[in-house]
Write a structure and sequence with these properties.
Elements: H1 2-54, H2 58-84, H3 88-105, H4 107-122, E1 130-133, E2 136-142, E3 145-148
Antiparallel strand pairs: 1-2, 2-3
Length: about 150
Amino acid sequence: MDSFEKQLHTFYDKAITLGTEYGGQLILAIVVLVVGLWVIGKVSNAVRHHAVKGLPDETLAQFLTNIFEIILKVLLVFSVASMVGIETTSFVAILGAAGLAVGFALQGSLSNFAGGVMILIFRPFKVADYVGAQDVEGVILYHSTLISDHSARV
């Protein structure tokens, strides 16, 4: 039992040492994370509000605002990780390699995604336009949902 108490006392001493050494950094990092997420939410809402007014289509405004918000959150997480003492260069390398692997794995799907983004940006058609594609014609109902002449959803 004496050995257990000695190990417990050693553990307690190490916990106190680590707490005093890294506790302030950890608390500061948590505060920065919470405040950063709050600020990102406020900035994102302001950007969304102004983007809806300034851009011709609400879908494009929503898409660009979401991309903006995701980028800010990733930068915040990297900043908080570096504040705690985690080396972020390895994370960036892993993220790049993972992005490359996912890009190769989803090559066909990503080309469809890129086509969708181009449609959002260049807006060749909008809601309530009458369009035709591959022997199907109809009115754009919502985003890219098409109501054909025979009242079928495509």
